[in-house]
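Hi again,

Forgot to attach this to my earlier email, sorry! This is the prediction with flavin-adenine dinucleotide bound. I've pasted everything inline since the attachment limit keeps bouncing my files.
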Amino acid sequence: METTATGPSALTDDEILLRDTVRRFAEERVLPGELARDKECRFHSELVAELAEMGFLGIPVPEEYGGAGMTTMCYALTVEEIAKVSGSLALTLAAHTSLGTMMIVDFGTEEQKKEFVPPLAAGKYLGAFGLTEPQAGSDSGATRTVARREGDAYVISGQKSWITNASYAGSFVVTARTSEGRGADGISAFIVRRDAPGFAIGKPEKKLGLHSSDSCPLFFDGCRVPAAQRLGPEGEGFKYFMKTLDRGRIIIGAMALGLAEGALQRSLQYAKERKTFGKEIANHQAIAFKLADMATQIEAARLLIHQAARKKDAGLPFTREAAMAKLYASEMAMRVTSDAIQIHGGYGYTREYHVERMYRDAKLCTIGEGTSEVQRLVISRSLVQDGTGF
Ligand SMILES: Cc1cc2nc3c(=O)[nH]c(=O)nc-3n(C[C@H](O)[C@H](O)[C@H](O)COP(=O)(O)OP(=O)(O)OC[C@H]3O[C@@H](n4cnc5c(N)ncnc54)[C@H](O)[C@@H]3O)c2cc1C
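Structure tokens for the complex follow:
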């Protein structure tokens, strides 16, 4: 691998070019209007179309299915740069790619990939992923949605909650129970089209943050799905969803990293401008040390994320590393965005400054795609089973 820098988080020339391209797009196209969109809970429809035009809706999708065929590292860098200015757009991209699209790329048949992936990679519509139910979040093996086989179709009944991109998605990968009493082994995966009979999308939830991201319940009332749209063999669906979340966790870590970096950039700028007691607050040691701690934690998160992404790209096991990256980066982002508000004083507590939005947006990173507690379960189980590895 050719690199222009040294050290464990060194980037290749291609990665730097991609990062800088996305950075320019984020600063020039996404940043203007972001505060207003957040206040109005307005989805980034036009910006999603621009991302599609630039080929960013299929970054890790193989070229034969219409994607850019890039690495997980490139995908993580893209989400990080977007999250520096918009947590909502970063989540829209992450849920579409990691969950709604790559699940089909990784586990679909050739026919399913040819049919469903190209429109997703081209951004004809967004993808979504329905695992969570009102009674099954962390305990997603407790899925109650059922799929009954009827000839060459399945009939799905049940409900999903919190499904990102639902209002704008054309295809949904969802779990449903195909046999009773077998726990997670009785769960299968299906691709459901938006216009499937018996399928309905509920109203968007009103959330603490990520106001420009879309989260809705899904309702299945005798929804008929062709058997050819079952993803993998019966009973394998739950395992596929868990594997899909592994990659997703690296990307939610990258989103948290971007939010924290955005908050540090704004805090640094503000601390050099705001004066109290005759000098810039950056020259009060209490504020300077806060900035130092924020930067140090950001670098630690970056190393964890890059380690997990590089392992995934090298085809090595990365479940533990992905959980560590998400756990650390998301909790770090909460500390850093909170410190950013502190540095901005009262102004940071208002909707006129980006750090207030970043603090609210960062919270989701400790919940979505497995809570911090679930990451600790994944990490501790891996330690007990496999040892530390160092
Ligand atoms: C904005 C947003 C977007 C989302 N997008 C999607 C999506 O696109 N698709 C999708 O399927 N889901 C999505 N989700 C759902 C998300 O994945 C779940 O909210 C999450 O997995 C937690 O589930 P829960 O909310 O049911 O909480 P619960 O599982 O009820 O957890 C409640 C609390 O108990 C803790 N807890 C639970 N079990 C244990 C345990 N064994 N040990 C220790 N602590 C435990 C949890 O960590 C948490 O603190 C989204 C959620 C939000 C808020």
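Strands lie at 126-130, 146-150, 153-164, 169-177, 187-193, 199-201, 215-226, 230-231, 275-276, 279-280. Residues 237-273 form the longest helix (37 residues).

That should be everything now.

G.
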